[in-house]
UniProtKB/TrEMBL annotation:
One cellular-component annotation, GO: dynein complex
A GO molecular function held by the record: dynein intermediate chain binding
Protein known as: DYH5 protein
Domain Dynein heavy chain AAA lid: 88-227
Alphabetical list of Pfam families matching this protein: AAA_lid_11, Dynein_C, Dynein_heavy
Lineage of origin: Eukaryota, Metazoa, Chordata, Craniata, Vertebrata
Matching Gene3D superfamilies: 1.20.1270.280, P-loop containing nucleotide triphosphate hydrolases (3.40.50.300), Region D6 of dynein motor (1.10.8.720)
UniProt-listed InterPro entries: AAA_lid_11, AAA_lid_11_sf, DHC, Dynein_C, Dynein_heavy_D6_P-loop, P-loop_NTPase
Dynein heavy chain C-terminal domain sequence ranges: 234-328
Residues in Dynein heavy chain region D6 P-loop domain copies: 1-57
Length: 329
């Protein structure tokens, strides 16, 4: 009657087939028993296991406002006051803003990151813990060692996931521009109207976050405004493709043809237009008459072989497609 937790199952796909068979063939099972599986999206994940499972996804929130709100909803007042150094609260907010930014840039595809890195809450937690430890051990006379802070954020905590040189340069640029003594000045801002609030309680920060715009311009993340056009276009195409893929495929409305009927008709038409295969003996005889060793004829023979390969592949594919539609494949 207990719960079984299997984590990171995308690393052990072979075992999942065994797990599926075990669950499906077990005759008696306690009503309180549950199997909880965590995994990344993987194309080879057993589809049978997905079909009789309840799916949950944990996606990062969309937008700076949603990301900061989620981060600060998990921050307690004790955590906010864990250090009495004046740099603590601004640095905590800056790390939260950096965390939201690196996640949000992923939606822009290659424009955001050359490689889509899986930045997660563990990166943020490790960065915050480092900042706290650094302030606890800091010499008040010398102040914050910004070179150390920038290196840890840009090269270790978040940069440890980054493998592309240009992505690494981008991350280090964020660390250099946003983290320094200038971040405590009145004029500092991440972008226009995106500043570090001065609050004493978690509620103060949440109230400021509520005032942020719901939809962010790409310039907030250091991107050109045209990046949003690409993102919105890809999002619309993905949405429409999903809608089309979920439409009924074996029924029709009114007197129109079903999708299978259209494919069957087109396959028949293509097979009728497809020329017959080349007769190798006839081809050889014709080439010998024309002079088989001449360069132009050698080239012609190669082209005939390539064309024959195309004809055979098209004929086999269309034939198998018709058999699949009829359920005879």
């Amino acid at each position: 009657g207990g719960w079984l937790l299997l984590q990171n199952c995308h690393l052990g796909l072979e075992f999942l087939n065994e797990l599926t068979d075990t669950i499906a063939t077990t005759e008696s099972m306690n009503e309180g028993f549950r199997t909880w599986i965590t995994t990344e999206a993987h194309p080879e994940f057993p589809i049978n296991l997905l079909q009789f499972s309840i799916k949950f996804t944990n996606e990062p929130p969309q937008g700076v406002k949603a990301g900061l709100k989620r981060t600060y909803s998990a921050v307690t007042q004790d955590h906010l006051e864990v250090s009495n150094m004046p740099q603590w609260k601004p640095l905590l907010y800056a790390v939260a803003f950096l965390h939201t930014t690196v996640q949000e840039r992923r939606k822009f595809g290659p424009l955001g990151w050359n490689i889509p890195y899986e930045f997660n809450q563990a990166d943020y937690a490790a960065s915050v813990q480092f900042v706290q430890n650094h302030l606890d051990d800091m010499d008040i006379k010398r102040g914050v060692n910004w070179s150390c802070v920038r290196y840890m954020l840009g090269e270790v905590q978040y940069g440890g996931r980054v493998t592309d040189d240009l992505d690494k340069a981008l991350l280090n640029t964020y660390a250099r521009v946003w983290f320094g003594e200038h971040m405590f000045s009145e004029k500092f801002c991440f972008y226009k109207d995106y500043v570090i609030p001065k609050g004493k309680t978690v509620e103060d920060y949440l109230q400021y976050i509520e005032q942020l715009p719901v939809i962010d311009t790409p310039e907030v993340f250091g991107l050109h405004p045209n990046a949003d056009i690409t993102y919105q276009t890809n999002l619309a195409n993905e949405t429409l493709s999903t809608i089309v893929s979920t439409q009924p495929k074996d029924s029709s409305t009114g007197e129109g043809e079903t999708r299978e009927a259209v494919v069957q008709r087109l396959a028949d038409e293509m097979l009728e237009k497809l020329p017959p295969d080349y007769n190798p003996h006839e081809v050889k005889a014709q080439l010998q008459k024309m002079g088989a060793i001449q360069p132009i004829n050698i080239f012609l023979r190669q082209e005939i072989d390539c064309m024959q390969h195309v004809l055979s592949r098209v004929r086999i594919t269309l034939t198998d497609l018709k058999l699949a539609i009829d359920g005879k494949l």
